[in-house]
Structure formats: C-alpha cells, structure tokens
Design goal:
alpha+beta, Beta-lactamase, 2 domains, 11 strands, about 35% helix
Length: about 375
C-alpha cells in the first residue's frame, strides 16, 4: 500500500497561469472537448477509467465518464459513480473543524496540550504548544506518514484496538510522546499524521467519531448523500469503480472489501472519503461561495482563514493548496488526492466561478499525467489566452 502526497507535485502548477487568463463562459463545444479528451487521454495513459465534472457560475457545464469500473470486466463507469478522493479528504476535515470553531467548540489556536489534557504530561515538550491551525497546515513538525514503509510502526500502535476513536487516541499518545521530525512551526512538511491528530482532537472535544462529525457537520448540511469512507462498492458485483494496483507493470483491480484496497480506516481524517462527482461538487461550490462571502457552512471570516496559507512555503492553507491575489482573495484553491490506487483533483477558480473535478481509478504516474492532460484540454476551452 502506498500513501502518496501527490498533491505536493501538482499544487499550484497552474496558479500563475490562471491569474492571467481571460474569463470565458462554457460554450457548446465544451462537452465535445471533454468527451474526446476522456477517451483519448484514458487510452493514451492506459487507465481503467477517467471522469470529469465542470461547473461554471454554479451550473454544470460539462460532465463525462469513460472506461471500465474494473479492468477485465465489462461494467462501464457512469457520471453517478463513486470515486475515492484520498487526500482531498483533508479539505473536508478542515471544514468540519472550522464549523466546530465557529460554534465555539474548539479554536484554531488550541494547543495540543489543551486538545489532549490527559496526554499532556507524557507529550514531548516541543509538541505541547503546536496549534490546531498548524496541524491543518502541515506546520506541526510531525512525520509525514506518506510512505508505506512507515505503516509497520503505525499498525504496531493500533494492534488489538478495534474502535477507530480509540485507535486515533492511541496514535496521539504514541506519536506525540516522540521527538518531532522537524522543529514545530518552522518548516512545511506534508503530514497525514497531522490530520489524523487534528481529527482526534475533534473527537476528543465532541465525543463523536470523525466519520460521524463529517457526516453531520458537512455531508448532511450540503445535501451530500452519495458518499462514505473507504473503498467504494461491493465484492460480489461491480457496482462501483474499483481501485487498481500496479503489479509487474500491469494494473490489477482490487476487491473493495480487502484491507489492501485502501488506507487503514484510522487514517480517515487524512484520506478515506469516497464520493460521487456531483456530491463532491456540492462541497467545492460551497468553498467557492465561501470565497465570495455566502457559503452555507462557515462564517465569511472563517472561510478566509481556512483558505489563507500560513505554511512556510506560502502555498498550503488548511486542507487546500491556495494561490491568493494581491487583495488576499484566492485565485485558486486546489488539491490532488491519491491512496495509490485512485487519483483525483479539484481546481476552484473563484475569479472565474469555475470548478473542475477530475478522477481516475488508478494511482500511477500515468494517472497523474492523465489528469494533468485532461485539465489542460478543459482549461484551453474554458480560458482562452488573449
């Protein structure tokens, strides 16, 4: 299993270009361009399937899905299918915590010593003053947990513990008692562990599991009904796309019931959501609306806090890669997600009121290239250069 920080490779690659593009409404050719691009790009990169949804000014401008739910089987993907979004889960976790902040349940400035008072005595001193905002911005100095080699130690911590909240609590105790990987607050280091700990902080404060919090604080309020956690679909039938693993140079479809088909469930806050593109668009549109001051979930100032980088690289906000304009308003919010067996990407361009979602059920380098090629084709149609 691979837990890859793919978003680090693609965050803001197009940000400077977007800032200089001329806005244009979707025209009648956009659907034709998308249909052709899905087919040719999928074939060029030898992927099981490829899908995309484009929204302009709050309306679907183009959508499509092309290919197979599982290689070697006849079932084709549809625009209603579920896709595992990997690390794009992080924006959901950050938004859920931001809702708790708006209600006064917790604060972005809460320190780990405050979040976990029962563990403060055994916590490494360097971690005690780390804040929730730093966890959500990858500035906590924590190990990345982005490499499958790190999973042996991870599994050793949660061995024999069945409850997910209890597993996350055990991970907090274990990892926060160790010396930090970097001096907290000084350097950006992408960390899945940081989001697990942030999710555990919300669990500790509310008494509810992260999964329940995401459902009640985000899904339910936005009308998201086609979403869940872990690999989507059933073992017995090919009712949803399946993730694919590369073995000996070939892609092999994974049984969604297998423990090898996804990250461990306790990693949830960092990357286990699956969702349909249409329901994911509900979330993305709310983030865009939040930039304009009228989102459903958060106060305007909280969206702004969520979308403003505090990271040392100046590019990562809370669960989002962000490129800000001179006025501090985002020109681009973006994130790429993968658990190694799927890959997805979200691009929100508030200035143009455009959102592009792309997805594939493979997590290879070719999958990354395919999503980039697909976005390039769509951008050329949506944003012609002067």
């Amino acid at each position: 299993m691979r837990i890859q920080p793919w978003e680090q490779q693609s965050l803001l690659v197009l940000a400077l270009a977007f800032a200089s593009l001329t806005p244009a409404h979707a025209d009648e050719n956009l659907q034709t361009v998308l249909d052709a691009s899905l087919k040719t790009t999928r074939e060029a990169h030898h992927l099981p399937a490829l899908a995309a949804l484009v929204q302009v000014q709050g309306h679907v401008a183009a959508q499509g899905a092309f290919g197979l739910r599982a290689l070697g089987h006849a079932e084709v993907v549809t625009t209603d299918d579920l896709w595992h979004i990997g690390s794009d889960t992080k924006a959901f976790t950050s938004t859920m915590i931001a809702r708790l902040v708006d209600r006064g349940v917790m604060k972005f400035e809460d320190t780990l010593a405050v979040c976990f008072p029962d563990d403060a005595a055994t916590m490494n001193e360097a971690y005690r003053s780390v804040t929730v905002a730093q966890l959500l911005s990858h500035m906590a100095g924590l190990p990345g947990l982005t490499d499958g080699k790190e999973l042996a130690a991870y599994f050793a911590v949660i061995k024999g513990i069945k409850d997910l909240k209890a597993q996350r609590a055990a991970l907090v105790r274990s990892y926060l008692s160790r010396p930090p990987a970097l001096k907290p607050g000084t350097q950006f280091q992408y960390s899945n562990l940081g989001f697990i700990i942030a999710g555990a902080a919300a669990e500790r404060r509310t008494g509810k599991a992260w999964e329940e919090l995401v459902r009640t604080e985000v899904f339910a309020l936005l009308g998201i009904t086609h979403a869940g956690f872990g690999a989507p679909g059933s073992s017995a039938v090919f009712d949803q796309p399946r993730g694919h693993e590369e073995r000996d140079g070939k892609l092999v479809a994974l049984d969604p019931a297998s423990s090898d088909a996804d990250n461990p469930p306790s990693l949830g806050p960092a990357g286990t959501i699956h969702i349909s593109l249409h329901d994911w668009m509900l979330f993305a549109q709310d983030q865009l609306d939040g930039v304009h001051g009228h989102g459903k979930l958060l106060k305007p100032e909280t969206y702004r806090r969520l979308h403003t980088p505090i990271s040392s690289n100046g590019q990562y906000a809370m669960g989002w890669g962000a490129k800000l304009g001179a006025d501090g308003v985002p020109l681009l919010l973006t994130h790429t997600g993968s658990n190694g067996f799927w890959m997805v990407d979200v691009r929100i361009m508030p200035k143009h009121d455009i959102i592009i979602l792309t997805a594939t059920n493979a997590g290879t380098d070719d999958a990354d290239k395919a999503l980039k090629d697909l976005r390039a084709a769509l951008n050329a149609q949506l944003h012609p250069f002067d």
